[in-house]
Amino acid sequence: MSWIPPEHWSSAEHVHELMHRQGIRPQLSPAVLSAALDLYEDAALHKLSRVEARAFFSAHAILVPQGLETLPLPWLQQLPIRLWHTRKPHWDVLPYLLKSVATEAGVLRLYFPQELIIKEARLSLWDRLRVTLNLSMRPNLWLPLNPSEEREIWNRHPELRNELFTVRS
Questions:
Q1: In the chain, where the domains are located
Q2: String of b and e for 116-147 (b: at least 16 CB within 10 Å)?
Q3: Which residues lie below 8 Å from residue 6, measured CB to CB, with a gap of 6+?
Q4: What pLDDT does 124 receive?
């Protein structure tokens, strides 16, 4: 076992390491994912979704995570639903503290203050949550875009055409 600073666990680099260890490879570049997420942005809907997300965390979690306002609209809308699905069916609240969320290089970053300081070789509960949530958010780096998203990015971002259909390795 080796000591890893807590900041690393919530980093994009750590999430990429987790995915790599699971045999999951990126299908999109961060630039293409950013363009895909931008397709859904709507300022008024983002504001409403922030209010709804805060209400969810107030009702079903111990605290409201910092950084909700920084999430792209699709992820902001999906985060409460995806987190809710990670609990046992009979639970009325989430069983863990999520102190902050952020995005970095196409990755959903999650910081859990109760995460242990010692990093074990096995995949921890916190790391499983990071993998699950990053894979379940749509769109994400690890799944191809749907045809309508591809078409829209092709039309709006000619500078991304070369990498749009390139599968990452």
A1: 2-164
A2: eeebeeeeeebbebbbebbbbbbbbbbbebee
A3: 111, 115, 117
A4: 84
CB 128 within 8 A of CB 121: no
Q: Which residues of 74-103 are buried (b: 16+ CB within 10 A; e: fewer)?
A: bbbbbbbebbeebeeeeeeebebebbbbbb
122 and 136 Cβ atoms separated by less than 8 Å: no
pTM of the model: 0.90
Return the amino acid letter for 10. S
pLDDT at 9: 65
Contact 145, 153 (CB under 8 A): yes
CA distance 138 to 36: 10
Give the model confidence (pLDDT) of 31-89 as tens digits. 999 999 999 999 999 999 999 999 999 999 989 999 999 999 999 999 999 999 999 99
